[in-house]
Every structure is written in structure tokens, then in C-alpha cells.
Amino acid sequence: MQANDLRPGMVIKHNGELYSIYKAEHRTPGNLRAFVQAKMRQLRTGSISDYRFRSTDDVERAVIDETDMQYLYSDGDSYYFMNTANYEQIHLHKDVVGDRAPYLVPDVVLKVEYYEGRPIDIALPQTVDLKIVDTEPGIKGGSATNVQKPATMETGLVVNVPPFINAGETIRVDTATGTYLERVNK
């Protein structure tokens, strides 16, 4: 495929490495040739880099297989997942999971991405429900303002929440932005 066809979420093979596209902008600066400015994350190391492709460059799209898996637990540097179809278990190193670890709660179902039969990445669900373990006491009538306060989740993630939310409550968090969406009644 050509660089013009790059979209966020795609996985490509570039310089012998696999990269996940975070952002791809097509630019045409004045009388110069068009190019695609791509922000991409290397799947092996997790490092993010910017690269400029000419719009006519050929890019090799990697064939990725996805499998629904349930997160079980973490043990030091490894995160364990179970295939929901055949109950096989795999583990991924913390470098693969990276900054998405605070969104992993036991029993959450997500997609594990495979390349050539080897697990390379995880795709989180759009939202996860997390329990608040620590925050300032709630303020009655606190919904009248848009002021927010920090709350620490069961996984260590800190999310800004409205003032009427208390410790012990469960909230829904957007995994893409790390922001509070709503209170969940469980």
C-alpha cells in the first residue's frame, strides 16, 4: 500500500521492525511535494518516533491476527492472559504491555495481537470499570461545577473525577485518554 493510506491503528513493517501507527497526517506544503507525517510506536521496544514518508512511498502492512483473551494476573515483569476459546494461557513481558498496565483489571477481555504466530501487542477495550481506592471526600451538590479532583484507582492509575465521587465507588474510564466517563452502579 502507499503511505497515503496510513491510518491510526494500522501495523506496518518499516526498516525490518513492526510499528503501530498512532497518527498520520497528509501534508502538502506550498509548491513542494506532498508527504505523510506519521507518529508511530515500535512494537518491540515501545518507543514512539516520528517519520516522514513521501506520499508515493510503498509501505508494507503487517498481517496481524487478533485473539480475544481474558487478563488473569501479573507476576513481577509478566502479565498473564487466557484465550477465551480454548483456555490456553500466554504471558507478555511488561515492555509489551507498557503504559497500558494500569487499565488491566482481572477478568477484563481484550484483544491480543499476533504476528507470525507470536504475541506482539494488546488492544484494550474502549472503556474499563475501575474502583476508586483513594480520593478526597465527596461534596454534596458538587455536580454544579466542572471542578475535578484526583482519584487513585485500584490499579494505581490517577484519574480526575467530579467532586461528588467518593472512595469505594466504581467508575468507567476511557482507555484512550485516561479520563472519567461516568459512575458505574455495581
Which regions are unreliable across 5 or more consecutive residues at pLDDT < 50? Answer: none
Shape: flat
- Count the strands? 15
Estimated share of beta-strand residues: over 45%
- Helix-strand category: mainly beta
The description of the largest β-sheet is: 5 strands, antiparallel
CATH class of the largest domain: Mainly Beta
Count of individual domains: 3
Quickly count the helices: 1
Sheet with the most strands: spatial strand order: 4-3-2-1-5
Radius of gyration: 20 Å
Percent helix among the residues? under 10%
- The topology string of helices and strands comes to EEEEEEEEHEEEEEEE
What is the architecture of the largest domain at the second tier of CATH? Answer: Roll
Taking all residues together, what is the mean pLDDT?
86
Whole-Å distance between the termini?
Answer: 47 Å
CATH topology of the largest domain: SH3 type barrels
